[in-house]
Amino acid sequence: MNFHPSPVKITPRRARAALLLLSLLLLCSHPGIAAAQTADKINLPADRTAYTKLSSHAIPSSVPPAVDVFARQSISELSQHPPFTNWEDAGVEYVPLGPGTRSWLVMLNTDHIPLGYLIISSDNSGGLVLSEYGIGTDLPYSMNTLESSLAAAGLLLPGSPKDSDAILRFTPGTTIEALYDPALPRWKVNVKDKPARYIHAVSGEELTERTNPSVKAPHITSFKAQHVMNVSQSSPVISTLGDLDPYRNMLWITAQPLHITQPAAFKTQLRAGSKTAVIFTAGKRNAEYAAPLSLTGWQEWSSPQGSILYLIASHHGTELQRYLPADTLIGKGRFLPSP
């Protein structure tokens, strides 16, 4: 049975605490010591029950300038189109993602309420790629999701505070890493003398051993950071009126799979204003993709180097729409028409 954490009411105070908690978990190795740029792991002593509030102005100091430029130019480009128009003046928080800090989570907020996110990754040719982005209040790597998942797995010590202004209490020697591979954001939880456990950073579902290893990254066209504004352009978002929740009407289970081998096919399947959706399911690998996913639109980025078609993907039980490169899903499962 899939595990879906109970929804948590987002208040300004809780959202602010969650953002600060996430920043602390990933940017500090012990109280009072700021982590280096490559620190995406932290040791948690058993008696650690409080956290030090971090100034958002201190976080970007370790962010590579190219990543910051890429993020801000991508945000500027996206803010020209709904539903991203309120991103232009949003606050920005950076969090490193492993392994090896090759990716960065960029969280956008206004008055400390989450608006959306970007995940930026480096490629093998010295460029940067927008691995995914999205809009909503339930951002990937939410501390609320992690807390619910760890509590369900029995990994919190008795007496762990329920107040989001206090850090969670783990067994001695516990480490937590935020990892990212294409379409697979996840936490790695290392408990002393026990096998590592992996938790999907969107759904909160614990991943099996088979889904733990890094997946092979598909080829995604890279956009050089210094040319984002001048060369790469995003199209308006094309969205349908299809159901965002793949579980609301599950007649798609009996449908014949669509033959989709190229991203361009989604432009025909997902027409603006239609009442259609395409369901992505990966069978035994559903947990890896937090599937089934309801695909209800797309946005295309173009440059002389090529183009990337991002699909709007919605999950059951979350207030989040992820924009995933179509290439990360094609060939990984089946696409079914939603009734």
Automatic annotation (TrEMBL):
Domain of life where this protein originates: Bacteria
Keywords: Signal
Signal peptide (from-to): 1-34
Protein name: Uncharacterized protein
Species for this entry: Paenibacillus lemnae
